[in-house]
Amino acid sequence: MITLRYRLKGLKVQAVEQSFKDGNTEFPAGSFIVPANQSGKNVQALVTAAVEALGLTAAALAKTPDVPMHELDLPRLAIYSTWGNTQEVGWVRYALDKFEVPFD
């Protein structure tokens, strides 16, 4: 999900804090909600491309669910390492690369 969030970095994304149902489909807590009305952006095309590329499942909802939500910002990470043992840092950098989390 972190890869999806970074691929949608220019969009407002929220996460639901509890599960909800829309028709016959149940969405678990933590599901992403991406509002369609974000000015100057083709939200549907951006979300569809990102979701399909990652092999995820998405659904278009007729209205915003009536459950508590919070905005998902882009996380910032810091890694501290000593020069004595850098192998672990290498694995962390590998994971960040693999999941497309930018770092410097």
Q: Specify the biggest β-sheet.
A: 3 strands, antiparallel
> If you average the pLDDT, what whole number results?
90
Major sheet strand order: 4-1-5
Shape, per Cα inertia axes? elongated
Order of helices and strands: HEEEEHEH
Helical content, roughly? 25-40%
Tell me the layout of helices and strands.
Elements lengths: L1 H6 L6 E3 L3 E3 L2 E3 L4 E2 L9 H12 L14 E3 L15 H12 L6
Antiparallel strand pairs: 1-4, 1-5, 2-3
Tags for this model:
104 residues, alpha+beta, three-stranded antiparallel β-sheet, two-stranded antiparallel ribbon, 29% helix, elongated
Q: What do you see in this structure?
A:
- This protein has 104 residues and is an alpha+beta fold.
- It contains three helices and five strands, in the order H-E-E-E-E-H-E-H.
- The protein has helices at residues 2-7, 43-54, 87-98, and strands at 14-16, 20-22, 25-27, 32-33, 69-71.
- The strands form two sheets. A three-stranded antiparallel beta sheet has the order 4-1-5, with no helix packed on it. A two-stranded antiparallel ribbon has the order 2-3.
- A hairpin with a 2-residue loop joins strand 2 (20-22) and strand 3.
- The longest helix has 12 residues, at 43-54.
- The chain is elongated, with a radius of gyration of 17 Å.
- The two termini are 21 Å apart.
- The mean pLDDT is 90.
Give a brief rundown of this model.
The chain contains 3 helices and 5 strands, in the order αββββαβα. With 104 residues, the protein is α+β, with helices and mostly antiparallel strands.
